[in-house]
What we know:
- The chain is mainly α.
- Helices cover about 90% and strands about 0% of the residues.
- It has 2 helices and no strands.
- The chain has helices spanning about 5-85, 90-115.
- Helix 1 runs antiparallel to helix 2 (about 90-115).
- It is rod-shaped.
- The relative contact order is 0.06.
Amino acid sequence: MGTWGVAGQLTQPIFTAGRLRGNLRYAESQQRQYLIAYKQAIQLAFRDVSDALIGYQKYYEVRKAQEETVQDLSDSVATSLKRYRGGIATYLEVLDNQRSLFSAQLTLAQDVAMNSRV
């Protein structure tokens, strides 16, 4: 082997070391980018779960209030019927209470139907 052949073999690892260092930096940079993307995905998932829980809590509160309204109006209809039968109230009062009850029941049924699809 000649002098140039030996010198070429000795200097070859020096030049590839720069390329290897560059590849290492690139790989480390990609790893950091993937880690950042992973952390963002986790944060987004937590935010989605939090938003869903808040939405469910609000729906639950509204539904409970609507159920209480329906129950109160049902009691009001019963009371107005007793008053009518006792001669204290007109039938118009009974009809008005029934109309209010029907409206509240319809609203509750629509809310339940819409949220059961979600």
